[in-house]
# Entry
Amino acid sequence: MNRRSFLLSIAALPTLSLPFAGLSLSGLSRAAHASANGPTVEVMKSPSCGCCSAWADHLLGAGFQVELRDLSDDALWQMKDRLGVPEPLASCHTARVEGYVIEGHVPAADITRLLQERPNAKGLTVPGMPLGSPGMEMGQMRDRFDTLLLRHDGRSTVFAQHG
# Structure
């Protein structure tokens, strides 16, 4: 199984298996969406991905406006390719905000910092799906993970460390 297949299979897990899956853009999240006044984040995801919706809820809670866009798995990977996200740095969903690409479970605070500092880069990525990252909360289980700054030349550098 290659990395792409693995990520898609994890993203397609039934949403009932993920904590907070029932919160996905419903109830409290809709209220947060209505009152959000921050930048709009367009999130492109698989329709069956519960962790992607949980990440969108995390952004809503941080004041971002969120637009969810469901794509087929093939269309999602084509979008990642068009936006220049290298497969080793990919995750289960891709987003765009104010000209930047946001790949995977990037914490809202890192996106806020990116938008404040405005580095000359494609955007941010949290490769894979680390436990404890926003949208991947599993009780007390937490992986250490880095948010990477994805440069225009394809290289990446550590933008923030977590855990």
About this structure: The longest helix spans residues 50-61. The chain has one domain: 3-162. The radius of gyration is 14 Å.
